[in-house]
Amino acid sequence: MATSTENGWKGTLLKSDNSSKGNYMLLVGGHNIYLNTGRDYSALVGKPVNVTYKGTLDSFGLIDITRNKINKYKTLALMLLETFKNFPDFELLDTGGGF
């Protein structure tokens, strides 16, 4: 049996899609981890977070959920790439006329 130690996950916090499993869920590498807590983390929904817990994967207690500030720039860069990927390609043509 594993001992209880402080552990953590990094992922995106979402509202749960199954309230019988928890009121939040953490998306980690394509997997859902359901969290049931009375604390209000609604300001972090849709954002990259760090989740710390104590215990084992089979039986754990939530310690805290905090914003993963290191990933906010990566998230912004990915959003910008997604935004600009649909822009048409263009070429700068030298018509010899100058400016």
Strands of the widest sheet, in order across it, are 3-2-1-4-5
Helical coverage, percent range:
10-25%
Largest sheet: 5 strands, antiparallel
Rg: 21 Å
Structural class: mainly beta
How many DSSP-defined strands? 5
- Overall, the morphology is elongated
Count structural domains. 1
Instruction: Give the mean pLDDT.
Output: 80
Q: Which residues sit in consecutive blocks of at least 5 with pLDDT less than 50?
A: 1-5
How would you spell out the order of helices and strands? EEEEEH
Distinct helical segment count? 1
Strand content: 35-45%
- The N- to C-terminal Cα distance equals 75 Å
Structure in words:
Strand 4 and strand 5 (60-67) form a beta hairpin. Mean pLDDT is 80; it is low at 1-5. With 99 residues, the chain is mainly beta. The chain is 13% helix and 37% strand. The chain has one domain (5-84). It has a 5-stranded antiparallel β-sheet, with no helix packed on it. It is built from 1 helix and 5 strands, in the order βββββα. The chain is elongated.
Defining traits:
99 residues, mainly beta, five-stranded antiparallel β-sheet, 13% helix
